[in-house]
Amino acid sequence: MTTPSEVPTTGTAEASSGPGDALEEPALPPAPWLRFSWLLATPWLAFLAFPVAGILQSPLTGLAAAIPLTAIVAFAGLYVYAFIVNARTLGQDGHAAVLLGILGVLTVPVFVAVGVDAFGMFTFLATYAIFSQPLRRAVQFVAVLLLAMAVVLISTDHLDRWFYLMITAGTAAFVGMIRWIDGRQQQRDELENQLVLTAERERVARDVHDVLGHSLTVVTVKAELAERLVDADPEAAKAEIAAIRSLTREALGEVRATVSGLRVARLADELESARAALIDAGITAVVPADPAVVDPRHRIVLAWVLREAVTNVVRHARATRCEVTLASASMQVIDDGVGPGAATESGGLRGARERVRAAGGTLTVSPGEAGGTRVEVHW
Fold this sequence. Notes:
Strand order of the largest sheet: 1-2-3-5-4
Helix content: 55-70%
Largest sheet: 5 strands, mixed
Number of helices: 12
Distance between the termini: 47 Å
Order of helices and strands: HHHHHHHHHHEHEEHEE
Number of domains: 2
Number of strands: 5
Structural class: alpha+beta
Shape: rod-shaped
C-alpha cells in the first residue's frame, strides 16, 4: 500500500543555459496500491451500518434523525473521494489532512445523535490517516484517537461498546503493518534498481574500455608505422592511413553497439585482430587461426580476455614474441617482455577477471617461465 508521500516522482529539469535547454521529464505514474486504493476502501463502508442502525433504533425522528443520516452518507462519499483525490494529487499532505479533518467533523452530528455508536466511523478515520499521512504522524493520530475513545467509553460507562475500540485498534494495526511492509518493499526495490544501474554502468565502462583500449592501441601503432613510411614508401603509408580510417570507423560502431548492449566479441575475429596488432607492433605472433578447439560456452569470454591481454602486450610489454594457446576450457597468452609488474591490477585486466569470474572461470596473471608475462584463463 504505497503511500503518497513515498511515491517517487520526476520533475522538470532546470534550464542549464536558457529556456530552450530545459528538458521536461515525464512524471512517474502513481503506484497501483495508490491508484486503486478506493476500490479496496469501498467494501469496508459496510461497517457504517452500525451507526445507521443506532440512529434508526433511536427515538430520533424528522430533522433530528435526518442530520446524522445525511452526515453518514456524506462521510461515506467523502471517504471514497478522499482515496481518489489522494491518488490524483500524489498524496500531498495538505490535501489529505484537510480531507481527514472534514471526515472527523462529519462524525460530530452522529456522535451527538447516537453517542458512542458513532465510534463505528472512527475505524475509517484511522485507516485513512495511516494510508494518507507520513507513518509517524499517522501513528500519533491513531494513538490519540484510541485514547479519546477509551476515555469516552470509561467516562460514559459504556463497557459494552469496547468492541468499537478493539475493531479500530485491530484495523489500524493491520493497515499499519501493510503500510510498513510496503515501505520496506519500496526501499528494497529502490536499492535493487540502484544496484542494477551500477552494474550496467560498470558493464558499459568495462566494454568501452576493452573496445577503445584495443582499437586505439592498434591505431597508435599504425600511425607510427605510417609516419615512418611516409617518406620511404608513400603508397604503404597511404595503406596504413586507410587502415587507420577503417579502424576508427569500426571502433565507433563498436562503441555504439556496446552502449546499446549489442556488442558481442567473437573469438575468431579477436584471434585475427590479435595477430594483426602484434605484427603491426613488430612482435612475432604465434596465434592459432581456428578457435574450434574451444568449448563454445567459453568463446565470448575468451575473446574479451584475448583482446585485453594482447592490448597490454602491444602497449606495455616491450616484447618481441607473443604466443596464444587455446584448449577446450582454457587459454594462455605468453610474451617475453618485461614481466607483469602492475599489469595484474590494471583496469582492463580487472574487468577481464570479472568477466571470467562471472562465467565461472579463473584468470591469473603471473611471470612466464623464461621471463615476460603469462595470462591464463581456465575453467
